[in-house]
Amino acid sequence: MEEQLAKIRPQIHSKLENQKQATTEETLDEQQTPRIPTAYYAALLTTLDGQIASPVAAPILYLLDIVLPHVPQSISRQRFTETLTILLTALKSHTTEAPIVRSVLGCLEALIIAQDGPTWKQPTTRKAFQALIMLCNDGRPKVRKRAQDAVRNVVTTPPLPMVVHPAAGMVADWCLQSLSNMKKRDESGSAIHVLTLLKHVVVMLPAQHFNPLCETLLQLPKMNNAFLTIAAFEVFESLFGSESISFDEDKFVQVLRALLELKPSGNDEQVLPAWLNIVASGMTSYYRINPNECTTQVPQLFSIIFADFHSGIPKINTSIAQCLSTVVRCITDDFITEATTHKKHGLKSMIKLAEDGLSIHYQDAWAEVLVVIQALFKRLRRSGANLMKGVLSAVGELRLSPDDLIKPSLDATLGAAITHAGPAAVLAVLPLNLETPTNTKSIGRAFMLPLLKEHIMNTEMAYFSQELMPLADRLLQKSHEFSDAGRAIESKIYDTLFQQIWSLVPGFCDLPTDLPQAFTMPVAEKFSKVLYSHPDLRPAICQGLGQLIVKNNQLAKSDAEEDHLRQAYGLTKQNGQKNIELMRSFAANYLAVFFNIYSQTVPMYRSYLSDVITTFLSITSEQDIRTTYAKVSGLLKDALEQPSNYSAANDPSVPPPMSHTMLDLAISMAPFLDHVSAQSLYQTATSLLAREDEPQIQKKAYKVLNQMATCTMGKHVLQENIEDLQSKLLESTTAVTPSSRKDRLQILIYTVDLLPTSDLHLIPSILSEAVLCTKEVNERSRDLAYELLVDMGRKMAAGGTVVNSKVEGMEEGVQDVTATIGEYFLMVTAGLAGSTPHMISASVASLSRLLFEFKDSLAPNLVSDLLSTMHHFVISSNREIVKSSLGFVKVAIVSLEPALLQNHLGDIVKGILTWSHEHKSHFKAKVRHIFERLIRRFGYEEIDKYVPEDDKKLLINIRKRRERAKRKKQGAMEVEDEDMEEDEPQAKPASQYNNAYEDALYGSESELESDTEEAMPVRNGANKAPKSKKEAVQSFIREDEEGPLDFLDRAVVGKVTSSKPDTYAKKAARVQSMLNAFASGEDGRMVINETDSEAEAAEEEDDSEEKENYYMEAQRSADGFTRGQGNRIKFNKRQRDADDDMMDVDIETSSKAKKKKGRDIQRIGAEFKAKRAGGDVKRKGKPDPYAYVPLTKVIKKKGKHQKMSFTGKLNK
Fold first, then answer.
1. CA-CA distance, 1018 to 1136, in Å (whole number)?
2. Which residues are 1210's β-sheet partners?
3. Do 35 and 124 share a domain, yes or no?
4. Are both 761 and 832 inside the same structural domain?
5. How many domains are there within the chain?
6. What pTM, to 2 d.p., does this model score?
7. Is 220 a domain residue?
8. More confident position, 495 or 39
9. What's the domain range around 866?
10. Number of neighbours of residue 1104 by Cβ within 10 angstroms
11. Whether 911 contacts 889, CB under 8 Å
12. InterPro entries this protein is in (predicted)?
């Protein structure tokens, strides 16, 4: 309700709805009554009672229609009689005014739905509902639709505990009476309106009305009115499609037979599709009532409908295919079994018709006939192997024809046959013939191999092991023979066929029905040999072997009934368990094979191997896992003792050393180890944390610990060794490599969660590391650092003791401290006394994140002290510190209660105003957004008190922009809602940030920002409208001037950019213009003036910071990048002139700015563009959307002069 009312409030210049709502809300505010639905309801009803006949009745009823559905049912029942009297009086007084009638109908709907069962026995209630029903046949479309919707909503919402609404009988009686009267007077239009209502409510009508209703509906097609007949059929379709209605079988059969006798002409493009729909719905309902009797009717009905394929009308053919596909499903399994044993049978006659449908006589309907054949294959399943041989042969012949139009349909039909009849049955009729020479009798069907790969599932695996595997071996032998003979093309063809056959393994491994008989030891060994000898086939074979475990495991744990599983898959839960036991017997040997292949594979292609290893480990016995891990551990120990100079950047095609491979395998095995093995793995991993000279080893060691922390046994081992783990992590602090940083932060998070409350000394020990990591280059590392800070805060807030004597650097006599959130904040604030701006900035950023998370748990005096401290950093001379401090201020304004900020408003305003005068405008946008937030929370007048007179221009500018933005938004909403009959509540746009903290820190939701961007002129395409989600983001490659780009070079990835790069000539010209912008000294060097603060900062830089000059140069260059929100990389583009709108604040600075060269195109008529159409619209308060062109001479000369056109004015 509030969303709908909120859309009306801003429409100051709209109709009376806004004025009446404003008056009502003012009255409620004066009476100090909360704005709740009940209050609105009482005020509006009182106002309406005295002004029913006046013009203001329309807006009052409009608002009442919005409010009534939200009024409590008890209130609606209590004031039912009073409200009903007023509404019926309003309806009677304004019968000719459609908008008022629609509003009254909405009010009556909400009022009637709220009533209980006893109320429906009163005449007034039935009278009100009668008024709704009568309007269901109104001549005004919108009124009629609103009335029908109201009746439907009332009937489908019976008062509890009733199942059928008391008014449903009234609806049925009215419909029957209306149809009977109209049938006599031949008023088909009115009858269609009644049938439209009946279509929506027929399933809710009392059962005793079905028989007379069906009899009446069956008479309507005899009036020879196509539209009336279609409407009647749609009612039957709704009636048959409901599963909640229990029909009397005899009556149902009579109705269905009567409908079948009403079959229209086979060429009737209007009525026949509707008739086919009700036949499909009727047969489905008949099958649900009596499957055996329904099945006996299918063959005859199938032949009657199939004959209409001769029509040649695409719409009719599509409807026939859909209907027959539904009818085919109405066949019992016993009926199919009988067909396999009898020569003459109704099902065989249906199949014969389908086969004849592929003859030349039905050529126009082949695509639709194939849809019916697919339905037959799906229903017959394995029985289709014998019954559908002729059809399958005909489909195969058509597939060999040169006609490409129906090849997709033919492939879909062959795929259905492969899936449901089985590949053995299909290939028996359509053999591959890959070995025999091509002739008329043995045509090669290599096109079947991709179809087999896509559609094989739940079939006999023995066919692959007994037929296809030997065929593959013979094809491979031929490939070798051709290769030896120097016939490379033929060799490649047969090698491809070999690989295509083996690529069928995943399909045959998808729940095979004969796994114990087919997957024998020789077959398993053959799989292993192919894994070793053919690397290209490893992904497919590994996928298949993994599916044998995963799918059977799902089958064994299924909640479905045994009969259902047997019917659907030909297997039971016991079969699944037996298949798992079979695969467990092969697990140890296969793991050895996978481990060997893993060591020979480069890391970028190991993902499928890791998946299949994990899958096999899940079923391997504990003894086999223990033995396997012992081997891995031994190989790892030997490999670690050997020096390694491996670097993936040197040659990524070379497999990594054994130590790396064994650690990767240990990561995969960690969740499945027992206690002894897990303890051994922990000792190995912690011993590698200090290997600073081997970054990859160190990184994998951290990954091992992280993997252990995610599994039960590994977590238990870490808990047992928590003291040792803390010691090892602290000892390795100085040895952490950049590549290991995020994995180390992750294990620190897990470790903090495992810490005992009696000893939390790890938190102060790693606090400075976590704080500094918030400034890491890697985004994932930064996120983990913030997560670690928050987790440590939660641990401290939960209580416990911080043993300070164990903290490195603390004196021995220091007393222990009780863990509290306040104590934790004091620890973090210690970083504000850091010796470097980097540390101070990181501490401020950390405090802002923690303040946002724990604001409700902090003492007010602590929050006050934090705010006071930040005032000093806001006015710092170091930009890095100021940037974090302004972020802290913004988070505080957004998240803290106004009372906590009230005493600091003066200092906040004074601090941020310091940076509004900064001549390089580094923080102008941030200052503007902070002021915007302050004004939202405290109001313009409150903030204005703290702003000096010289800076009031900024505040005035912000206020004007807000007002202008609101006016534009309001105007857009009015235009958008002009043609809308009902206002739909609009969802709030989703946040573009990852979490609430980033939304508070970076999100502005500023009216100023959108207003500024709309007001900016188009400049060289820099300010184009944002792309829609459907549009693909373009990518470009920057080329060097030295020569063509080498795509095999690994550095080519670094040359991909999302912005169109300049050519070398343009880049050189831009560089030259930049050089000319600075003065030159006597020695030819550029002279660049620095500010005093920058010079002082440069003097304070040490040697390590001087090394970053190249990095800064890259940032400032045209092809460099800067850091945006969350320290994310943002490539440099031409700067927007959004901040230039602040010229009235800093006139002296902006007046010195150089005028940018380029084209400013002022589009004529852009403000009249329609949002949802291709033309222009009339805007309120603006002239008509015509072209207003000055009657002066239109200049079209060459040179640097103005040009005028009817699409825009170009200023050069």
1. 10
2. 1161, 1203
3. yes
4. yes
5. 6
6. 0.73
7. no
8. 495
9. 859-979+993-1023
10. 7
11. yes
12. ARM-like (IPR011989), ARM-type_fold (IPR016024), HEAT_RRP12 (IPR012978), HEAT_RRP12_N (IPR057860), RRP12 (IPR052087)
